[in-house]
Every structure is written in C-alpha cells, then in structure tokens.
C-alpha cells in the first residue's frame, strides 16, 4: 500500500536530487488533460456521474494495458483521506489545491514512487501527471504518453479531429499538455538580473510562477516555468521549446553564480554560512525564513561551500516544513507559534541526521 | 618581558571568568589618583618635568618596598610603542584613551598578569589601577592599597590634611578613588527593566557607562557601574556601597533570567541558538553585531544552554575583536570591510578551538 508511505514520508522520487542539471533544475513535470466522451465536464457532473468517472478510471488503471505500460497504480478517493493527508498530497505536488474543493466527488491515482499520478474530476475528468527530478522533460513526456496510451485502451476520450483533445477550459484544448520545470535561480536573484530574464521568458509564451502556485511569490528563489500554448504545437515541440529555454536559463544562472563566486566571494560565503548556522541552531522559524535560508544553503551546497549535506535534503525540507506535513508529523493540530517551533526542530534534526551518515 | 605577551595575547587575568558571581560580574576595578607634591599637575608639566615624573615612578616601582608589596612591575614609555600597540592597551582596559594624547610625555606601569597597572601623566601624575575578574572589589582595593603604600615609601604625594589626596580635577579630590564593576545584564535588557534599574542607580550617586567608556552605548549589554563621590567617604565605605548595589543588581538580573527561562523558553533558546549559529558560521561581522551576538551567547552559556564554550572566551573575544587587536593579529592595516571579514574568521576559529579542547 503506497498511500501510508506517501503520507509518512516527505520524500518522493522527484526530490531525490538526481537527473541532469540537478544543481539548478529541481524537477520536470508533464501534465495532460483528458476527458471522457460520454459525460459532461466535471463542473457539470452529478455526484453519481462523478462516481462513474472514478469507477471508469479505476477499471482502466487496473487493466493489463496500464500495468504493462505504466506499472501498478492505486486509486484513492479524496473522501478516504483526512484533511491533513489531502493537504500533504498538495504539498508534495502530487495533486493541485483544486482537488480539495468538493472533494467527495474527486480521486487521485498514484504510482508507488509518485512519479505518475492522475487527478480525477479536477477541472477535467483526468489530469495525468509525471514528475521527475532534474531536467527530464522528454522522459516525463514519454511516461505520461505511455500511461495515456494504456488508459486509452479502456477509456473513450473526448477528441476532435481538428482541435485535438477537448478540455473544460479552452486554453488547454489541443494537446491538453502543460510541461514545466522547477528551477532554483538564487544567482540571478542575487545579481539582480531575475526580473529581466523572467520578462524575456514571458514574451516567449511561457508562464513563470513560484513553487506553490500562482498566488505565491517565488519563495526560496524557486521558479516554475511552463508553456502557455497547447493548441497548434505538437507535444514534442512544446517539450523541445521548454528544454531550449531552460538550457538558456541554466547558462545565465551559472554565469551569475560564477560572477558571485569571483566578485563577491566573502559576501556569498557569509550568506551561506549564516543560513547554515541559523538552520542548524534556531528554535523558532517561520515558513518564509525557512524557504529563504534553505535556498541560500542549497546554493552553498551546489557551490561546494557546504559539503556534508545532500542537496536533495533541502528539497525534502522545503516540502517537509509545509504546514500540513508539520501537523502530520506532530500528530496533532499546531498553533502558528507551535508550528514555527516544530519547523525549526525538524530542520535541526534532519540536518544533524544527514551529517551523521 | 611582559609587554610582548600583553600585545600578542588578548587574555588578561581579569577576563578569565573566575571570581565570585562571574556569571554576571565580568570584572571589578579600583583606581586611585595620586600626584607628586613638588611638580605641577600633568597638563601644566614641561616635557622635562614630565620625564621627571616618569623617572621618579620608575625608581619607586623598582624599589624593594614595591616589589615586596605588589610584585615586579615594568615601566613602558608610550613612545616606545606603535600606535596599534598603544590602542591595544586601551582595548584591554589597562590604560585610558587619554593616555594616547600627547603620548610622548606619558608612560604605563604593568604587572605581568595585568592585574596591577599605573598610568603616568594622564590627568594626574599617577593613576593606580587594579583589575580583577568577578566581584572582587575588596580584593582590588587591598591590592591597589598595597601598591600605593609601596610607592609612597619612595614618592612624596600631594596630600592635604583636610581634603585628602589632591587631584588635577576637583571631582577626584579626597580618596581619589574610583571603584567600578562591569556587569553583563542581558536579562534586565530583555525584560525591558534596564532603564528603570539604571535610573534608580543614578539616584544613589553612581554612574553607568558602556564597556568602552562614556561615549559608547551599552553594547553587548555590558554596563559599568562606578562611584561618583570621592570626598567625605572612606575608601572602604565606597567599596562596600558599590558591592551592596551590585548585589541588588545581581538579584534583579537573576530574577529576570529566571522569568525568561520560565516564560519565554523557546524565544530564549532561539535567540541563543541563532547567536551561536551565526558566530560559528558567518564570514563578515561588524563590531556591533559581534557584541550583540556574543552577549546572547554568554547568556546561553550562563544558563547552561550552550555547554562546550567557556564564558571566559566570550570576554576574550569581545576584546580580541576590537579594531586594534584585529590589526595587530593581521599584522597589517585593514580596511573596514577586511576588518569585518577578519573579525568573523577570528571568532569562528576561537570557538572551534575551544570546542576541540
């Protein structure tokens, strides 16, 4: 049973720090939107029809075609989970916050390594997701494509010869695909070039967000870059375009880091050292401060200024110190003050444990 | 030769963290002003007469009476020292900044452990000082008194039967004595009671200053309390009065620390932990920040939250990270930025060395 594992462990394969360009590219994600031909889009579904969608996907997920192409999957209805457990799935980026609204009619499909997941009855009947560490957009696309093929062997998708896959929101019509990369860009932030770089990206038809969705500032210098256009471009072209832009950003971020190492060596060492010292010894820490200091520490690890902490621990800590994970780890509700105390303690312990390995 | 030792080593006996009440009382000091009967006060001395004073004190310091009562002393003319070395004597509290002005006509007498010193041709011909760790005002007074007796066997002091010892400034006439204690009062600062407490002290005829003289704010929560009145009170009464006030302050500071430990435990642990982490890992540190963090760390050591650093190291670091000591340790002039880098490095090294013992 993968679920218990998922909830007790902050770690997902996407956080393990592997994959190409992992010093800057935290993760690569491909999501596709699919809908069943015979039923209204989710916002118009009756509870009974919503159940039909879930049952249809459950049957498809259990099919030999899916098992062969994508491995073993587990379907979990959202109402089987506690509110905290539902929130944890959001914090691990396995589902979107939208899946928490009207959750009685919604479900999630998970592979044990959490690389593949499917949201059922979110904005569309199905949203297939593949999430991998590092720059692996092609690999993510291939895995999503394999799962998609497996499901389509059973399910009848809403598809139009001219438009492509039909979706609840017209902005997803066509390929129904969103590809994205999560980048850690502290260098560009520190040399004050991030604004210009991101403005240029927007002009290429790409969208930039923070780690936790549209509303959040780019806390921890983590930026998600994704395609805006789904219509009129083949999936492979969308992926290739995003990879190309990502490679440009990698070059710019590395140049910024080199300039910092060369011209502001002491300031950089001071920043990294202070982050390390405070994370190791503070007893009260807000979410915002944790994100900021973990970003500084990650930069220090990548620049080999800090050597006995793996970069993957930073990604894990960013997820692990989100509110729902803290409540889950504590085993009870926490006041905001208690949360800050618990967060600091968890960070101290995890760093100490990593250093004893 | 004690001088080289003095300059290469920040450590003086007064910093060693011994003595009663050493958790709060850093040091106790007694100073007396004396003048030679046959010569004008220092500001009216010709260079030749200034040399006569130095020669007279040198002869007295070498006398059997002084050796027997106060031990072996070395006389050093200020113009034998480099500007940095002169500044170091100020930073170690062995001489006042005034001894640096017109230094060609001035000198200092030092005992090897730096417990006893005499400034020659500062405001008065002689200013005898005893500086001891912890609350040892009576002991300091007895040592100064013994040195004074030894010197008086050779020297002819300016003394008036009615007024007592005559001094250049009338505020010192009488006993010519200033007794002071240096207190670390972070608890009273944190519970916001320090203002009220110090206001009450001023009404008792006592003066409050920061660690480095009148002009400085009480950096590092270090407060020097001294008597204002020298006339009409016996030396023993001045000392007893200051001890009594100090004991009251000790009670108030301890009550504040207990209240903090009880009611703001996490905040206190956070404050101490952050100070420790930043001091151990920062690479750039201003003098002000160092004082603030060292104060927090000292409180943590006294409250046994930090166990592998002796409190005496904190006092030593406060002295060692003053500008002149840094220049001396670096062996060359330092820009303000370099000084902050050097200060941080020195603190990191000293703490690491203490923890390896």
TrEMBL record, chains A, B:
Keyword entries, A-Z? Allosteric enzyme, ATP-binding, Kinase, Nucleotide-binding, Transferase
Cellular component annotations (GO), alphabetically ordered: extracellular space
Tell me the enzyme class. transferase
Chain positions recorded as ATP binding sites: 27-31, 93, 127, 178-182, 209-214
Q: How is its activity regulated?
A: Appears to be allosterically activated by the binding of pArg-containing polypeptides to the pArg-binding pocket localized in the C-terminal domain of McsB.
The reaction(s) this protein catalyses = L-arginyl-[protein] + ATP = N(omega)-phospho-L-arginyl-[protein] + ADP + H(+)
Any keyword Nucleotide-binding? yes
Q: What Pfam families does its record include? A: ATP-gua_Ptrans
Q: Which residues form the Phosphagen kinase C-terminal domain?
A: 24-256
In alphabetical order, the GO MF annotations are: ATP binding; creatine kinase activity; protein arginine kinase activity
Xref: InterPro entries = Arg_Kinase, ATP-guanido_PTrfase, ATP-guanido_PTrfase_AS, ATP-guanido_PTrfase_cat, Gln_synth/guanido_kin_cat_dom
Q: Does the keyword Kinase apply?
A: yes
EC number, UniProt record: 2.7.14.1
A Gene Ontology BP annotation from the UniProt entry: phosphocreatine biosynthetic process
- Motif RDXXRA motif of the pArg binding pocket involved in allosteric regulation is found at 339-344
Q: Main role?
A: Catalyzes the specific phosphorylation of arginine residues in proteins.
Q: Which family does it belong to?
A: Belongs to the ATP:guanido phosphotransferase family.
This one is known as Protein-arginine kinase
Tell me the organism's taxonomic lineage. Answer: Bacteria, Bacillati, Bacillota, Clostridia, Eubacteriales
Per the record, the gene is mcsB
């Amino acid at each position: 049973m993968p679920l218990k594992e998922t909830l007790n462990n902050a770690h997902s394969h996407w956080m393990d720090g592997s994959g190409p360009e992992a010093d800057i590219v935290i993760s690569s994600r491909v999501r596709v939107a699919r809908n069943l031909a015979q039923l209204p889009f989710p916002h118009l579904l009756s509870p009974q029809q919503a159940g039909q969608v879930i049952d249809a996907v459950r049957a498809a997920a259990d099919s030999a075609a899916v098992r062969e192409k994508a491995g073993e999957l587990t379907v979990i209805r959202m109402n089987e989970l506690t509110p905290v457990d539902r929130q944890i799935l959001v914090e691990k980026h396995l589902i979107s916050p939208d899946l928490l609204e009207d959750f009685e009619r919604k479900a999630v499909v998970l592979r044990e390594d959490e690389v593949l997941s499917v949201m059922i009855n979110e904005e569309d009947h199905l949203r297939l997701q593949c999430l991998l560490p590092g720059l692996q957009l092609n690999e993510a696309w291939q895995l999503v494509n394999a799962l998609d093929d497996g499901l389509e062997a059973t399910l009848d998708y809403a598809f139009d010869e001219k438009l492509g896959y039909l979706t609840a929101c017209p902005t997803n019509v066509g390929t129904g695909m969103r590809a994205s990369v999560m980048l850690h860009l502290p260098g560009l932030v520190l040399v004050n070039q991030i604004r210009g770089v991101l403005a240029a990206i927007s002009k290429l038809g790409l969208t930039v967000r923070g780690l936790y969705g549209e509303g959040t500032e780019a806390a921890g210098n983590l930026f998600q870059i994704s395609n805006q256009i789904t219509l009129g471009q083949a999936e492979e072209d969308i992926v290739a375009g995003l990879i190309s832009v990502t490679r440009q950003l990698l070059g710019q971020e590395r140049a910024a880091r080199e300039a910092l190492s060369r011209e502001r060596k002491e300031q950089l060492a001071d920043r990294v050292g202070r982050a390390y010292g405070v994370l190791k010894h503070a007893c009260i820490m807000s979410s915002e401060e944790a994100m900021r200091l973990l970003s500084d520490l990650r930069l220090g690890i990548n620049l080999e200024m800090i050597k006995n902490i793996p970069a993957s621990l930073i990604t894990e800590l960013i997820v692990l110190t989100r509110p729902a994970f803290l409540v889950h780890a504590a085993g009870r509700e926490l006041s905001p003050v208690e949360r800050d105390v618990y967060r600091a303690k968890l960070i101290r312990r995890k760093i100490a444990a990593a250093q004893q390995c």
